[in-house]
Amino acid sequence: MDRELALELVRVTEAAAVSSAQWMGRGKKDEADDAATSAMRSMFDSITMQGTVVIGEGELDEAPMLYIGEELGNGQGPAVDIAVDPLEGTNIVAKGHNNAMAVIAAADRGALLHAPDMYMEKIAVGKNAKGKISLDDPIEKTIDIVAEANNKRIRDLTVIIQERPRHEELVERVRAKGARVKLFGDGDVEASIASCIPHTGVDIFVGTGGAPEGVISAAAVKCLDGDMQARLVPQNEEEANRCMEMGLADPRQLLTLDDLVKSDDAIFAATGVTEGELLHGVKFLGNDLTETDSIVMRAKTGTVRFIKANHHLDRKPHLLVNE
Ligand code: VTB
Ligand code: MG
Ligand code: MG
């Protein structure tokens, strides 16, 4: 992959964020999602790459844009797999809550796990605990390992978990062990990334969420030199068959970070839509001046860039969304 691709992908997440943020607080999650998806889709055409969507908005028959298998880019340059979540956190935007982002991951052709849209158990930790954790360990053991790796007392360790009934027992066990639990409503890509960035105060991300989000998160974790493991959770025979069709002999096999993202190189780009701990949200400052806050990083070099940009919507009318 060319290093220019990283910066091109930020332009795409910026466009998606600016468009969908216009739906913030309007109680309309589908409209917010559509705005992100169509802005993202139209920006891809200008990019020098031979991209193929491997994680996207669905199959061709159900999603007209960014469907799995869709070719993106101008047909020149590197052959890459593209994983998108144009709006990670549609409910967040509808309700005006925190931490919605537009996200893209890219890697060499064939490198991203073609995870179907189903649940996935996941765990992510930062660099210090890399190589030391396993999804098969009881959470109590993981807490001991990460506390030692991060040189923290267990009472100072924070585990971030999505607030769902399916996680109630997990939350109880983390608290019983003496660590802290930070609950979040939606957006586990942001939560996974937080576990790899010390100043967020988050030490472990764990829980069951979307498999597509899991693969996108894995690209980010790889860029941040953290660690992640996962396991698909098919809910029925049809979902189990889908896992086997994508080449997993055992749908429930343990997936390491290298199974999720097979190459040493990957790019992750995200732009904040609503205010968050990692990124600021899109700000509409008046006079059509709009500010975005993005992160873009590359696994090969480990470079992490935070990019603030000013956009003049009067000169980018295609980013204005009709209400
Ligand atoms: C998960 C999570 C996402 O939606 O897919 C979640 O990975 C859906 O979980 O980050 P539920 O079925 O329990 O609602 C997100 O939070 C947002 O897309
Ligand atoms: Mg989405
Ligand atoms: Mg999502």
TrEMBL record:
A GO BP annotation: fructose 1,6-bisphosphate metabolic process
The reaction(s) this protein catalyses: beta-D-fructose 1,6-bisphosphate + H2O = beta-D-fructose 6-phosphate + phosphate
Matching CDD domains: FBPase_glpX (cd01516)
Molecular function terms from GO: fructose 1,6-bisphosphate 1-phosphatase activity; metal ion binding
Superkingdom as given in the UniProt entry: Bacteria
Listed Pfam families: FBPase_glpX
Residues reported in the UniProt entry to bind Mn(2+) 1: D33, E57
Key words, A-Z: Carbohydrate metabolism, Hydrolase, Manganese, Metal-binding
Gene Ontology cellular component list: cytosol
Family of the protein in this entry: Belongs to the FBPase class 2 family.
NCBIfam families: glpX
Protein name, entry field: Fructose-1,6-bisphosphatase
Source organism of this protein record: Pontibacillus chungwhensis BH030062
Lineage start: Bacteria, Bacillati, Bacillota, Bacilli, Bacillales
Name of the coding gene: glpX
